[in-house]
Structure to design on (294 residues):
């Protein structure tokens, strides 16, 4: 049995309980794929990450990400949370205000702003691409959005490391009041090899610019409390549509209230069209994990 440093975090949260939970094993040396999957299944959190020494001098650390069912090549909240854990544990030091994460999709820079409890982290998401633009009355979305008034932009199927259908709704109340039709969301996800349906609307007179809900249709039916990857994919679509809210390509998203959270995600599209997704992280549990080496 080997004792390993272990933390549980709340990502995209100004205080514990607001964001998306994450478990991080800070020293995963000696754990094989089967052991990592078993730990991720045991934590029963949306994702569990495993920190390893980098395989290239350009990287600050290497990261593997597991859901309870499978390994994930990239996800936003695990990337942001793991970078927070690395900094808090002193495992790496930013260079010119950045860490570099090595993961299954390559080397991803993570911008570091501030320190301590007010530190903000943003990961440059993989480039997203449009797979298909639908119509406002697209019958494939009709079952999932029956009786809901669409917003200005047409629905779109995007791939940004994870594939999502994105649909703008008329206003914030339409997003907040949406009752998920899970069978229809699952069918949409299955038919297009996608995660599911991400709905959003613009907001006025709030401390955020968009409200977002990410409805995962497969492999399980669940609403994501705060999805960095889904929001990065949405930011890419808004940029392509010349419809970004906020100022100078930066805006704030509210997500998670409908499932008992109150996350804030900070999105920014830079001058090169790269999407950065991030926010604050809270450490909730510090301890050790006793798990046999592989």
């Amino acid at each position: 049995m080997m004792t390993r440093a272990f933390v549980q975090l709340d990502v995209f949260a100004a205080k514990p309980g607001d964001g998306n939970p994450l478990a991080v094993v800070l020293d995963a040396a000696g754990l094989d794929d089967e052991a990592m999957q078993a730990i991720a299944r045991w934590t029963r959190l949306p994702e569990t990450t495993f920190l390893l020494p980098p395989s290239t001098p350009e990287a600050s650390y290497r990261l593997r990400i597991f859901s309870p069912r499978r390994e994930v090549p990239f996800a936003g909240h695990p990337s942001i949370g793991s970078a927070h854990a690395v900094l808090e544990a002193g495992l790496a030091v930013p260079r010119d205000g950045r860490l570099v994460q090595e993961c299954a999709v390559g080397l991803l820079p993570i911008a570091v702003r501030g320190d301590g409890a007010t530190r903000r982290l943003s990961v440059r998401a993989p480039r997203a691409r449009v797979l298909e633009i639908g119509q406002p009355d697209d019958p494939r979305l009709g079952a999932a959005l029956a009786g809901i008034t669409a917003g200005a932009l047409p629905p779109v199927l995007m791939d940004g490391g994870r594939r999502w259908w994105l649909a703008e709704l008329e206003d914030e109340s339409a997003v907040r009041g949406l009752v998920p039709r899970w069978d229809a969301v699952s069918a949409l996800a299955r038919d297009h090899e996608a995660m599911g349906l991400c709905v959003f609307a613009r907001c006025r007179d709030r401390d955020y610019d968009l409200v977002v809900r990410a409805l995962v249709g497969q492999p399980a039916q669940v609403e994501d409390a705060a999805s960095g990857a889904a929001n990065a994919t949405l930011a890419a679509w808004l940029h392509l549509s010349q419809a970004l809210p906020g100022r100078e390509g930066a805006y704030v998203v509210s997500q998670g209230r409908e499932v008992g959270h109150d996350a804030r995600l900070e999105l920014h599209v830079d001058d090169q069209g790269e999407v950065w997704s991030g926010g604050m992280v809270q450490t909730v549990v510090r301890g050790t994990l006793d798990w046999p080496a592989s």
Q: What stands out?
A: The radius of gyration is 18 Å. The longest strand covers residues 281-291. Residues 110 and 233 are 17 Å apart (CA to CA). DSSP finds six helices and 18 strands in the chain.
